[in-house]
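**User:** My hope is that you can spare some time for a protein that puzzles me. As I understand it, each token names a local backbone shape. I would be glad if you read both lines and explained how they fit together. The protein I mean follows directly.
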Amino acid sequence: MKYKGTLLVVEDCGHALQFYRDMFGLQLLQDNDGNMELTGGLYLQEAKYWEKFIGESITPRSNRTELYFEEAEIEAFVEKLQRLYPKTEFVNRLMTHSWGQRVVRFYDPDGNLIEVGTPV
């Protein structure tokens, strides 16, 4: 068995692709009409398909999972996020943990939780 990646449910794959390209440099590998594979093992699937498959609606901002990224230039990352996506909803603004790592947590445009921290 081989782990392939993480799937995020989004409203519109095109908009989500733009966000993940802008903010994390991820690129499109494959587009299957509402289902996309991006570099880094991230998969996007539109909610209309996901809800049909599982027979239930999704719950944005459920806080059950989190995507985690590391970025040495975290201040520049946060500035870029606020410039390109000014309506971003933050869970916590840039903060420093007791062990010295600086992190920021926010939701992507579809309500998926993301954490970006300095390398540990």
The beta strands are 6-10, 28-31, 35-38, 42-46, 67-70, 90-96, 102-107, 113-117. The longest helix spans residues 13-24.
